[in-house]
Amino acid sequence: xxxxxxxxxxxxxxxxxxxxxxxxxxxxxxxxxxxxxxxxxxxxxxxxxxxxxxxxxxxxxxxxxxxxxxxxxxxxxxxxxxxxxxxxxxxxxxxxxxxxxxxxxxxxxxxxxxxxxxxxxxxxxxxxxxxxxxxxxxxxxxxxxxxxxxxxxxxxxxxxxxxxxxxxxxxxxxxxxxxxxxxxxxxxxxxxxxxxxxxxxxxxxxxxxxxxxxxxxxxxxxxxxxxxxxxxxxxxxxxxxxxxxxxxxxxxxxxxxxxxxxxxxxxxxxxxxxxxxxxxxxxxxxxxxxxxxxxxxxxxxxxxxxxxxxxxxxxxxxxxxxxxxxxxxxxxxxxxxxxxxxxxxxxxxxxxxxxxxxxxxxxxxxxxxxxxxxxxxxxxxxxxxxxxxxxxxxxxxxxxxxxxxxxxxxxxxxxxxxxxxxxxxxxxxxxxxxxxxxxxxxxxx
Amino acid sequence: xxxxxxxxxxxxxxxxxxxxxxxxxxxxxxxxxxxxxxxxxxxxxxxxxxxxxxxxxxxxxxxxxxxxxxxxxxxxxxxxxxxxxxxxxxxxxxxxxxxxxxxxxxxxxxxxxxxxxxxxxxxxxxxxxxxxxxxxxxxxxxxxxxxxxxxxxxxxxxxxxxxxxxxxxxxxxxxxxxxxxxxxxxxxxxxxxxxxxxxxxxxxxxxxxxxxxxxxxxxxxxxxxxxxxxxxxxxxxxxxxxx
Lengths: 445, 243
Fold this sequence. Notes:
heterodimer; A: 445 residues; 2 domains; B: 243 residues; alpha/beta; 36% helix
């Protein structure tokens, strides 16, 4: 006999149960129609919580799959929305009445088909007619060139245009003056500079460069004005890294060519844009001596800001859908992780399942217990994922200068999806637990 | 009559072979009896225990438990019967790990939606002499103490029948004796105790021994010289003190 395992019981004969306070009531009468029993909802929540907190590390790692998936979905969709709103905003800032004529027929060949056909005469013709539908026309001759001031030089965009550019493309000057019709007709060597150019050449964007001489491809120009800063454009380009000179000077002296890059046209109203497009097309077909069928044989394209906006929206939309698709895949992988861990957990707790059934748990009680666990895990993961996704997209939006866009719909959707994952991937393990035979479960080693 | 078995048959199919685990067992147990079921392994005593405990239903025959026909019950009713009419004690205790004694005892009440669970669980633990170990987890308790927690769990729903499957199989003799003492006290208070064991000296604590072999009851006798656990314990302690 092992004395060290001896444990005295104070009273050799224990007093009757009634001496110990309340005790259970009388044995219950059996009522076959009694539908009480079964676990209450609060109890199944508590039991599920115990199951999850008993293995915090495992629960946390399993939740991580859901967290990453949900956060990725929220972040991708929010960032996509932010990007497309930002693009739309800068396209709209150019004016909703703007039409852009470019050379080449993008319906047939996609891009410029070798050599631009737009000339200054085309621009002048468009500007001199259709006074009822068109308010202003700005020819554009673009190219990049080396600019130099003193010992500093830089590569920048040269924009040869006319005075109406300031109005059509919303580019006012903050100091000095814009180019004038006299500058254009006289092929003057005058330049209006953007703030980035000032920054690059003078080292400080706030210095006044007016009156100084800037050399463009070694040709000296007199600086007459500074453009108002416009920041990044719709596609991320720096709209302040530009030198504006008269279009005639640009064609003859700087680029040595006759063709324009494009013609910007401002319509009188958004409603007039369709008619203006028709008028411009007809005119250019005459000017260029084109033969039908049209528009197949056009050597130019007229685009409205609306169509550019639409194109950019469809690009960002596709991109958002693609990223969201990838994120959803990771969410599904997270769900499989939940199922995997629940299956392990059910196997590990076979004896517990047997015991619970022996003391009165129905298959439904056991099903609820395990389903609650996977549901709680998925919902908690979803909640953390939503917070992480909102936080992540806010940080990215701040860095990119977008307005953070978190739509309540996508948050709601993410919550529903993570709940759905908990149920869908939890039901099989839970059913496996519920269908255990109590005798075999109790014997399980 | 709390248990009435009539011509109970249980047939299993094991690997294509049919096994008659129980072959026409008829048996009556009265309220307040203390029955030990004995038999070699493979005799069908475990199957009998499972059917008596409503963990399994017979292939054929009738089983009236407290007047209710169990043989035709569905899973939900069987679960309710186990919850309200039967308290189980197992050889390997089967307590939930990392869960305190009180919470372990509360477990059956989770499935009966009863009030004042904590009070009733504390009462049951005090009843088995563990009133000072309420918040201990199984790993902080000795084997004997763990089995007493299991008995408290079987008591707490105030079921009329206590079923014990080799309750002392994993315990040292003095702890076994303490468990038997509790069983005898509970039986004295009117609880029906049915116990499966293969140890003759443990079976001698019962009032009646049923022997099973090849799926049949081969002997059913009243215990002539019943062992009283309280006396055995007194003697053991005296010997312990003398040494």
